[in-house]
Amino acid sequence: MPVNSTHYLFLSLLLFSIGIMGTLMRRNAIIIFMCIELMLNSVNLLLVSFSKLFADPNAQIFVFFIMVVAAAEVAVGLAIIVMMYRKVHSVDINILNRLKH
Amino acid sequence: MNLYDTLFWFLSAVSVGCALGVILSRNPVNSVLFLVLTFVSISGHYILMNAQFLFIVNLIVYTGAIMVLFLFVIMLMNLNADVEPQKGQLVQLAGVVSGGVLFLVLLAAVKTASPVPIDKASIDIGLITNLGKVLFKDFVLPFEISSVLFLSAMIGAVVIGKKEESTPLPSGE
């Protein structure tokens, strides 16, 4: 069975679900952040495969912008995590559930 | 089974295996390295679909910049498997079950999608020439706005990450 659009759909779904599972399973804030990156990348993969399918370059420009926003998001998010670590000396999200210290 | 299919199945196996490694390994450094491998295999998918621009951007931005940033932060905090907080077995099982149920629901939703062969589409849409033309003809404004976004993100990261003075400010402030 040659590779078609459904294969890419299933692969992206699987990666996205793994990201969801990781987000729900782990307590380390950095690992949760990494799982969110994994979900973003699975969506990127799906967009690129659809762009290939419909011969539409706009989807690839969209993926480019998603990467731009993800880079900015990672910079700010990691700064927030480092600041929290400096305050409470932990990245455990169960300690960080009060929104103040 | 031709070369395209073989490479697709190989890269998919690497992606899914390394993604499972990300969420299952106890040591955060191992998680980051698994995630780098996942991103490299996704870049392999891009090159397989002849999206050369996104291949190189994904490799440089994600694998080169973002993941090294994660690695730096984890090594800065000196996290390892011993201090890694673990959720209870029940909560972990609930997470796996809800993720799996979401996967099944989405799978059932797209199961009936008609399969379209991926090879028939044109091959030159992912090249830098074509994407550059589209980016600077139709998407100039979002492109410029994203530069403003980067500037504000940079300023925000510096402001948030700045070390606060431990001594209180002198009175009369």
Structure write-up:
The complex is a heterodimer of chains A (101) and B (173). Chain A is mostly helical and 101 residues long. Chain A has one domain: Helix Hairpins. Chain A is built from three helices and no strands. Chain A has helices spanning 5-25, 29-54, 58-88. In chain A, α2 (29-54) runs antiparallel to α3. In chain A, 50% of the residues are buried. The mean pLDDT of chain A is 88. With 173 residues, chain B is mainly alpha-helical. Among the domains of chain B are: 1-81, Four Helix Bundle (Hemerythrin (Met), subunit A) (Up-down Bundle), CATH 1.20.120.1200; 124-160. Chain B has six helices and no strands. Chain B has helices at 3-24, 28-48, 52-77, 89-110, 128-137, 140-161. The N and C termini of chain B lie far apart (74 Å). The model of chain B has no long low-confidence stretch (mean pLDDT 85).
Concise description?
Chain A contains three helices and no strands. By secondary structure, chain A is mainly α.
Main features:
heterodimer; A: mainly alpha; B: 173 residues; mainly alpha; Four Helix Bundle (Hemerythrin (Met), subunit A); globular
CATH class of chain A: Mainly Alpha
* Helix/strand structural class of chain B: mainly alpha
Separation of the first and last Cα atoms of chain B = 74 Å
- Reading off the top of the CATH hierarchy, the class of the domain at 1-81 in chain B is best stated as Mainly Alpha
- What is the N-to-C order of secondary-structure elements of chain A (H for helix, E for strand)? HHH
CATH architecture of chain A: Orthogonal Bundle
Q: Helix count of chain B?
A: 6
Assembly form of the protein: heterodimer
Average residue pLDDT of chain B: 85
- The shape of chain A is elongated
Low-confidence stretches of chain A: none
> What are the segments of chain B in which pLDDT stays under 50 over at least 5 consecutive residues?
none
> What share of residues are in beta strands of chain A?
under 5%
Greatest interface = A-B, 73 and 83 residues
CATH fold name of chain A, please? Helix Hairpins
